[in-house]
Specification:
Layout lengths: L1 H15 L20 H6 L6 H8 L3 E7 L4 E9 L5 E2 L2 E4 L4 H21 L5 E8 L8 H12 L5 E2 L8 H8 L19 H20 L8 E5 L3 H12 L3 E5 L3 H10 L3 E2 L12 E4 L8 H6 L4 E2 L10 H10 L3 E2 L2 H4 L2 H11 L3 H25 L3 H22 L1
Parallel strand pairs: 3-5, 3-6, 4-5, 7-8, 7-10, 8-9, 10-11, 11-12
Antiparallel strand pairs: 1-2, 2-5
Helix pairs in contact: 4-15, 5-6, 7-8, 7-13, 7-14, 13-14, 14-15
């Protein structure tokens, strides 16, 4: 065990780029290795994780490393007031460890608000596995990750996210019961993407109703960025309603699969921001609403399935409002996925999950109304709605 803890400490040093003499071995923990005061004091400002945790309200960050399988992962637990922190595991080839850390901090925080606004008894968490899912993912790596999840004793429950599948959840489940999104033949709910996409569809229609007076998508020009699981299910809804759909993706095989199923027009990944469109639907990675793209986008509505679409919540949320565009907050309208996997905990019923996802329409209308009345960004309005529920339950817990 001591040898394993020392390995974990060395992994922490790799993240902080610190020399070995700068840490105190006795303060290393296999589960929370960033409680190292001397390391944090010496860390570069941009990697001062404890300060970031305090600023964003995180409870715990877990760094995971296993030399034998090549596993390198981070688990973020943001808030557990409403219940255990549930959030998917993403596998992505990040440009740097710092980028991975930033992603897990933002994603786990977003899950707190997502579960709260969806009315679920869950907190917010997220995990990232650093690596190329198309080349490096295998059973051994996933099972080793499952052991790290299990070591948290149910405080964090994982699920499927970018770069992962229900089959991958099965491997993780071999080492822990704290996993959702399992295949149906194991009693799980299967792929959550259909319910996620349906929720995005509901949020998009609510936004269209707010802007145009009716929620019909027929004839609307909609650009869908990202044709993965959620993107393709969303495209199916849009095409069936008569929308004119444009798609882009960095993966050619996904585009071929999409165009073989639906009548859509492929556009260049970079040119999508300059299109003449009614609705921009980001369904890939986050940060696509930023200084550059907001100078180029000419749409009336932004409504998509990607997480963390605003590069900077305060800056770019306000900028969207100033441009007169309607933004359907991502953590609100893409909450169908967590609604679906939550059903595995409460007792799964697909029709019930789809029905609950329909309420996204009503909540989106409420948030857009608050945004207009108070002249605040829809992101802030949605966070206020979610935070009110968290605070109310926290007060109840304090009286027990």
């Amino acid at each position: 065990m001591l040898a394993q803890k020392q390995k974990m400490c060395m992994f922490a040093l790799a993240f902080y780029r610190l020399p070995p003499q700068k840490y105190e071995k006795k303060k290393c923990s296999i589960n929370l290795i960033i409680n190292m005061k001397t390391a944090v004091k010496s860390a570069p400002a941009e990697l001062n994780v404890l300060n970031d945790m305090k600023t964003m309200g995180h409870e715990q960050i877990v760094f995971c490393q296993d030399e034998a399988t090549g596993l390198k992962a981070i688990i973020g637990i943001h808030n557990t007031v409403l219940g255990p922190a549930l959030g998917g595991t993403r596998m992505w080839h990040y440009a740097s460890d710092a980028d991975a850390l930033e992603d897990v901090l933002r994603l786990s925080r977003g899950m707190t608000f997502k579960s709260a606004i969806a009315g679920l008894n869950l907190g917010g968490g997220k995990a990232v596995i650093i690596g190329d899912s198309r080349k490096q993912k295998n059973e051994a790596l996933l099972r080793r990750f499952g052991k790290f999840v299990d070591s948290l004793g149910g405080k964090y429950i994982t699920a499927e996210d970018v770069g992962m599948s229900t089959r991958d959840m099965e491997f993780i489940h071999m080492e822990t019961d704290h996993v959702t999104g399992l295949p149906e033949y194991l009693g799980g709910s299967g792929d959550p993407s259909p319910v996620t996409a349906y929720g995005v569809y509901m949020g998009m229609k609510a936004s269209v109703k707010y802007v145009y007076g009716n929620d019909s998508l027929s004839g609307k020009k909609i650009a869908v960025q990202g044709t993965g699981h959620v993107g393709q299910y969303l495209i199916g809804h849009l095409v069936n309603e008569g929308a004119k759909v444009f798609v882009s993706d960095i993966f050619e095989d996904r585009l071929k699969e999409c165009t073989s199923k639906y009548k859509v027009e492929v556009v260049d990944a970079e040119a999508i921001y300059d299109m003449d469109m009614d609705i921009y639907a980001p369904c890939a990675l986050g940060g696509t609403l930023n200084d550059d793209t907001l100078n180029r986008l000419k749409c009336a509505i932004v409504a998509g399935g990607a997480n963390n679409q605003l590069k900077n919540e305060s800056v770019h949320g306000k900028r969207v409002l100033e441009k007169g565009m309607v933004y359907a907050p991502d953590f609100l309208i893409n909450s169908g996925g967590i609604i679906n996997v939550y059903g595995e905990i409460a007792g799964y019923d697909k029709q019930a999950a789809m029905k609950k996802a329909e309420f996204i329409y009503e909540v989106t209308q409420e948030v857009l109304k608050i945004s207009a009345e108070q002249q605040i960004s829809s992101q802030v309005a949605a966070m206020q709605v979610a935070q009110r529920r968290i605070d109310a339950i926290a007060r109840i817990n304090q009286t027990l």
